[in-house]
Every structure is written in structure tokens, then in C-alpha cells.
Amino acid sequence: MNPIEVTLTLPEEVAANIQVGSSSSLARRILELAAIQAHEDGIITETEVMETLGFEDREELYQFLKSYDVRSTHIDLQTSSETLEDLLSRQTR
Predict the structure, then answer these.
(1) Are 73 and 67 in contact (CB under 8 A)?
(2) Is 50 exceeded by the pLDDT of residue 76?
(3) Residue 5 maps to a domain
(4) How many structural domains is the chain composed of?
(5) 6 belongs to a structural domain
(6) Residue 9: is it exposed, middle or buried by C-beta count within 10 angstroms (0-12/13-18/19+)?
(7) Do residues 49 and 42 lie in contact, with contact meaning Cβ atoms separated by under 8 Å?
(8) 0.85 cut: is pTM over it?
């Protein structure tokens, strides 16, 4: 993958608002937000999010998505499935 460098010009106030609550650099924060939005919009896959953000495994990706409160991740679906299975098994007892 060949990286592409992008230069942005933002008003200071906007940059400060984007940076609020993050210990990451402004560039990293913008990259994270862009990756999340592109993934939620179906533009990029989980694998592409991982490549973009330099994650080595899906667990790191899922923890990242969870930290941003992104819904419908694999973890959420797995938890829902386990809860449903538990409820169904109780019902048959």
C-alpha cells in the first residue's frame, strides 16, 4: 500500500474542537474519525480500517471501535448472539 499525504487547513477553533478529549495528535485524530466515518458509510472494510490505522489484529480494531462507541461491531453481534442463545436455552429448560 502506497500512502498518500494530505494537507488540511483548519481554523484553530475547529482544530481545537476536534482535538478535545483525545491524547492523539490532531493528524491521528482526524485519520481515526475519517476511518470510522468511511467504515460506517460502507466505503471501507474493517480490514481497510485496520490497514489505515496500523492495527495488527481484529481485537485491536474492535477495542478501537468500542472506544468511539461505534455500533454493530463483531463484538456487539457476538454478544447479542450469545445472549440470545442463553435466553433460548433457558426457555427450553
Answers:
(1) no
(2) no
(3) no
(4) 1
(5) no
(6) exposed
(7) no
(8) no
